[in-house]
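Structure ticket #2291
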Amino acid sequence: MTYEAEVQFKFDATWTPTYGSSFGDDDFIPEEHYLITAPAADLNAKQYFKLFEKFMLCVGMCPQSIRSGAMSLVFNDYVAEEDQRKVCNEYELTMDEDLEKKYQDFKERDAQWAKIDAQYEKNFGSEPKIKGEWVDSADGVA
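Resolution: structure written out below.
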């Protein structure tokens, strides 16, 4: 037995002139028909979203609005925080609630780096120079 499935997105738009109006704008199309079809038997969720993105572009949505709409499916009050965090981990995003902790982590790393750098300067900062290898930046002399 064979399983076949197809998904379709259809958009039809027509413009009907009213009394006294005419169609004179060259940038305007008075009638548009879009039919997007795809085999649906094996599409995964990301492929469905990609397909719907193409449809939304066809009907005039801007890419920023499409992305905002997709993100609103994940980051709204009705989605459990645990599920939101899974998406953040998958795409390496930081939630607002976690910014303070991330800032403290960066400060701690900066302090550790400063300590390591100071240790390096103390132990290795006075290596002898070979004449002609380095130029002293203050006076331009080797």
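Closing remark: The first helix runs from residue 45 to 58.
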